Amino acid sequence: MTQLKISDLSVGDWVQAQFPNGDKWNERILYLSNTGRLEVQYKDGKPVRCTIDFIQPIPITPEILEKNGFAFLPDDNPRHLRFVDGNIVISTYEGRETFALYCYNDMGWTETFSQTLRYIHQLQHELRLAGVEKEIVL
Fold first, then answer.
1. pLDDT tens-digit profile of 92-121?
2. Which end of the chain is more exposed for a tag (fewer CB within 10 A), N or C?
């Protein structure tokens, strides 16, 4: 498992909370502290405070991309997986754990924002950096 640091996260990021009693769920971060404490929303809607030790990243999957309006775009290479939403393209190759994010402007030029996205919170950050206001849902 990947160990996150507080500096990797922002309020609003999707993460998976995993507790010693076996409870785990995907939720957004409500509060962050530089001391390593954070607050996530529990399944019943109440906030729960915990430490970064109980938080894991959520991997990007084709299913999550499609649920968020990214349409699969077939390619001549069947191993090349591309998902498109307007001027945003997210691509990977079958068997890879990382995704790349590209944004096209009105002139058709592309800007590569990241070649090494693995987790939903990283995608959220890169979309914000690209100036894209897109609500990610799980």
1. 998 888 999 888 877 666 676 777 899 999
2. N
Q: What mean pLDDT do residues 53-62 have?
A: 93
What DSSP designation does 126 have?
Answer: H
d(CA 92, CA 74): 12
Percentage of residues in the chain with pLDDT exceeding 90? 43
| Residues belonging to the chain | 138
* Predicted pLDDT of residue 108: 67
Q: What is the pTM of this model?
A: 0.86
Concatenating the DSSP letter of every residue in 47-63 gives: EEEEEGGGEE--B--HH
Q: What is the Cα–Cα distance from 90 to 70, expressed in whole angstroms?
A: 8
61, 83 Cβ separation under 8 angstroms: no
- Give the whole-angstrom CA distance, residue 59 versus residue 15: 9
- The single residue listed with the structure tokens 């799980």 is 138
Q: How many CA atoms lie within 13 A of 121 on its CB side?
A: 22
Q: What is the rounded average pLDDT of the residues 58-86?
A: 92
